[in-house]
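ok trying this again, last paste got cut off
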Amino acid sequence: MRLFERILGARFEALAPEVQALHRQVGVKEGEISLRASPIMQLFGFPPPCKDAPLWFGTREEENVAIWRRQIKDRELRSEVWQSGDLVVERMGVVTITSELVIEHGALSQETRGVRFMDMPLPRALWPRVTACEWGAGGAYHFSIEVRAPIFDVVLLAYEGWLRP
């Protein structure tokens, strides 16, 4: 049983088949991504903006921690994802976000429950606003993520795309 199956339990079956397939398997998936990254996010290693760029997404699990690797253009983004009670925690670089997984009409979204920067908890007023959704359509897994600055409400990062099953 993989990470999201463990966190969601019986609710996992309510996900679209394409979303279930992505979270049940380890290995490499290919697809496309369109990305807008602010200069600040580019300093943290995100690639410059791109449209319909090739995407390579690899997953594996080690001791109940999922390792997610995304190759976009010439950049590789790596994150570690694990379970904390009934929440999911993802660390990418110096930022760690704890989220609740929510299922609605077969789609999976994440609602932020905590943010740490350099392993220090941030007060809610300083949390970035994250909108993350995954769904299935046309036999492919689709995703859309947007991260907005907490105070000025500007888009720091936005990306969307799809992966082949």
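PB: full thing came through this time. Residues 94 and 119 are 7 Å apart (CA to CA).
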